[in-house]
Specification:
The chain has 13 helices and 12 strands. The strands form 2 sheets. Strands 2-1-3-4-5-11 form a 6-stranded parallel beta sheet, sandwiched between helices. A 6-stranded mixed beta sheet has the order 7-6-8-9-10-12, sandwiched between helices. Helix 1 packs across helix 3 (32-45) and helix 5 runs parallel beside helix 13 (291-308). The termini are far apart. It folds into 3 domains: 6-50, lambda repressor-like DNA-binding domains (434 Repressor (Amino-terminal Domain)), CATH 1.10.260.40; 58-160 and 291-319, Response regulator (Rossmann fold, 3-Layer(aba) Sandwich), CATH 3.40.50.2300; 162-288, Response regulator (Rossmann fold), CATH 3.40.50. The longest helix has 18 residues, at 291-308. It is α/β, with parallel strands linked by helices and 330 residues long.
Length: 330
Amino acid sequence: MKRITIYDVAKEADVSLATVSRVINGSEVVREDTRVKVQEAIEKLGYKPNAIAQGLALQKTTTIALIVPEASFFYTGQIINGLIDVAKIYKYNIVLHTTTEGITEMNDIIETIIKSRVDGVVIFNDKLNKEELNTLTNYQIPIVVIGNRMSDETVGSVYVDYAKLIYDFAIERIDRGMKNIALVEDRKNPAMIKQLNDGLKKAYEERGMEFKNYIEIPKEYRSSYLFLKEYFKDHKHEIIVTYRDSQAMAVLNTAKEAEISIPDELEIVCILDSKYNAMARPQISGFKIPDYDLGAVAMRLLTKMLVDEEEVMDKEIELSYIFTPRKSTK
């Protein structure tokens, strides 16, 4: 016999999972007619609430878990600052969890979070996909994901549309006659690179061309620098785009060693701008991503979801960006 779950009750009553959870736990924010509808569905289906999940929902700890990948920690400093500043305003405590590689570790961290009984979770991880959130969503814990566009009853997201960012840049450059644009692979940030690759493909297709200049870094090379040193011996491009500043500097240095003039023969653009881009010679052009705002807006969205998810109309919030031209572009 099939076990009746909270999902079945929500479907029968035609309400969200969060609403069913509130009715089960005696929340006063649910309308009376909705409460009756949910209770009737529970009785009809014979649903028995999970005692552990019910206990988790009832206990409020005013603690938020923040999950950050170790490899991206340098870039998440301002995101964390923005999140903490808003958390202080609403009197929430932040518990930081870091991940390395692998889904197994993510599942271990999720289990730890559930046991610690946090009120909500903010996740910054560009490798994360919807399926991997199932463990948390099963416990009705509100989640905000930074970097990936996704949402459902208990999940919201705050993100920058990197595909649109590079599409706009590429269209402007192509229309100026610069059609030889390349993108360097970044194995540490595959989801972001996919967005950039998709944006470039779209730009080229709209101008009647095919994007073929995706520079893959073979696994036998320990660094982008070592591969690019060989690559520039028989490859030339008008523009090279990288995601991180370290890769932009690898392009800069190996191009100079190959006696390629920057920006006259090659333009270099780094997606994630940093203070190091301004220290390089020539200075590297990049995009100012609102990292502090990503954290601040994510925390504000989570506080709204914690109060009443049904009142949060938009759980997918897109933030803008600014191109910062420097000496590595014309």
